[in-house]
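[step 3/7] fold_predict: job queued, chain A
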Amino acid sequence: MEWILLLVTSIFLIIVQTAIPFLMKRTVVFGVTVPIEKTKSKELMRYKKLYTLITFIFSIIILFLFFMWATLTSPTENNLVLLGTMIPFAIIMGSLSLYFYFHAKVTRLKIKDRWFQNRKQVKVSDLAIRTQDEMLSWILFTIPMFITFGLIIFTAINYHQFPNQIPIHWGPDGPDAFTAKSIVSVFLLPLTILIMQGMFLGINEMTKKSGIKLRATSIHTSRMRQLRLRKYSSWLLFTSSVLITMMFTFLQITILHENLAHDFINILLPVIILIVTLGATAFFAIKVGKTDSDLDMEVVDDTKHEKIIEVDEDQFWKGGLIYFNKNDPSIFVEKRFGIGWTLNFARPLGYVIIFGPIVLLLLLTFA
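[step 4/7] structure written:
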């Protein structure tokens, strides 16, 4: 099963990493704000294509070398899994290095050609856009939480029937690592689900309250992108919450009822959940990323664009990846490289929402 999960995850990661430059909104190229009339310049398009080509070749080489090593050396299962988990990390680090290289090149090109000099930077607000926002209500996110509360009650009632050795890891043949029975170990899975559900709920609510940024030179298209981004990211969060709840609930029940499901189901269920999760993520990326293709249908007034331009916020983006703006009340903002949201690191509440659950999970794990 580890092989299947590794292969599926690696292929998905390669596809996403190579496609990122063409899924981002056009007026941000490798984390750098560019004028709308420059978005199709030969230089910028060449940078995007080079990034995609090099990332793809590099990723394929990494996968090829791994499978050659696994075939020729006959490694142990532990060594195979250990090295296999490093493949996604290597792909991400390789693509990130390329990102910083092209980020520097676009930044130098922007300074050299003085894209924003002698042009009025305009910030657009739409007071009616909130009425069109289709992000999910917090109430919907409480449904998986109620299921988890039921699981906690079920676990408490049947606590004395749980085995003396509690599984903490599952392999192709079922549980393969155990720890001694205790209150923490027995309730670890339900509490983990509840913490993650709370994190999804918090991210959804803080994202809903974040600012909706429109481009002065393409108001219609940017409005469409923002609404789609918010809607589908909310659905992705909810879908992830439901899938994690299903998986962990199944595992918790099988600890008590070991023979509840056939071994085939135990192997197949994680694969199905992974595929559905990756499929939902891909759907989200495509639905949001393709919005800027509508820019071609938007009437562009070149004389207008010569005079005004959207606000250049590059000064608030460290390396085009880390957003730090004390004047922006938003907790979450749209990523500049990648699809989705990132923290406004100038807002302490964001640290609590993201890192608080991680700390709690670590405390539970090592308790």
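[step 5/7] annotate
DSSP finds ten helices and ten strands in the chain.
The first helix runs from residue 2 to 23.
exit 0
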